[in-house]
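Contributing new records

If you add data, match the layout below exactly. Sequence lines come first and carry their own label; structure lines follow with theirs. Keep one chain per record. Anything else will be rejected by the validation script.
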Amino acid sequence: MGNGRNPPALVENNNWVMEMKRQEEPLKKIFSYEMVNQIFDALDEGIIIVDRDYRILFYNRTLSRIEGLESHNVIGKKLLDVFPSLTPEESTIYQVIRSGKPIFNRYQTYLNYRGKEIKTVNSTIPIMENGHVLGALEISRDVSELYMLSQKVLELQQKLLGKKCRPAHAGCRYTFDSIIGRSQKIRELVKLMKKVAGTTSSVLIYGETGTGKELFAQSLHSESPRKNHPFIAQNCAALPETLLESLLFGTTKGSFTGAEDKPGLFEQADGGTLLLDEINCMGLSLQSKLLRVLQEGVVRRIGASYDIPVDVRIIATTNERPEELLKSGRLRKDLFYRLSVIYVEIPPLRERPEDIEDLVGHFIEKYNRKFKKDVKGVDQQVLSLFKEYPWPGNVRELEHVIEGVMNYVDEGYISFSDLKYVNFGSFRNYVEHRSERPSGVKSRLDEYEKDLIINALRKSGGNVSKAAKSLGIKRQALQYRLRKYGIDRKLLS
């Protein structure tokens, strides 16, 4: 039997709860409706609160300024009555109330009932009680001015490019001869891509970050009958969706304030190839417009009432497996089938260690020329380490390591002691712990365990808790092994 006394930790916790309750009433008095209203009105961000029936309960002064509406004309009305251009599928508030899950930093463009176009970045949070959704609070940041500035920058770039006399194939630097590697996987991949280079079919390339997806895409164009026509690459993750749309499809004068007649990238790439990098970051509404181009071979500029025929081969890349994108609903199935007429997977560097020696030699030669140095290569110990290391950042990480160490080595061979200058987290941890690892059977077991951990982290998207669960170990045990083997989970997410 106990001594009737509570443990110190429990007493301390009870005291904390009692203190919180004592402060609750004064806080309720301070945070009256009028006080909350004053606080929200003083913010630079727009605030809107909606109940579970999508009726607007609160609408602050900043949002009134952004959207050009008066709060007394908005409060009490249904959300879609005030913003008729929105659909439930497009509205972040609808999505959050239906799912009960928050959405952070989502770009949104819509029209209010006066026809004014609004561009905001929203964070939307469900209001919950006892597990039930009572409504949602949304915080909006106005990005209209930023959008207009971005448009002007794009227009200036277009004018600048128009004044330059560039060869049609400008922007395409690589051919299949640029692909370094003697492994069977790489040789078979190059052989396959050379076969399909002469067709006009769309291509979808999957590869982890740093595997060289654009290098393969450019090589495909350089080997094709389109090689004397434009090759244009656009990263789909680099711009907000509305800006990306105007860049791809072009604009007509008057389609929005300051807009001019301007061809999009589809028109500029006519007769050539358009690379859409990281297509997994493209929004679903823009994916449907891209599908139309693939199906019908025409584009329509923003604000135009007519179609323009284009002859463009589309190459799309993704650093996430298509099956995962389809499962999560981030890639339209009909678009996937259109893009993946030719589907290519680039193997990660850890699956082709026999290519590492050639890649190291290529990068040393490259930076010898660039830095005016005379480095002969790497010694055997370093080469062995390079072949053991899993290279989560793939070929790009290997190049960065070579570039980094060649800032400090002028000639001769790069030795193990030279690697101390390299500061990349995962690689540096691996180097620091390598000398502590035992040899023989224990070393091989460690390597096997490390491979299991890396695969588990990749499958979980870098989530340590999920990876630990799949491995059947505690999260703390996995954290210890990450430090032990120098594994950077961020490079695996």
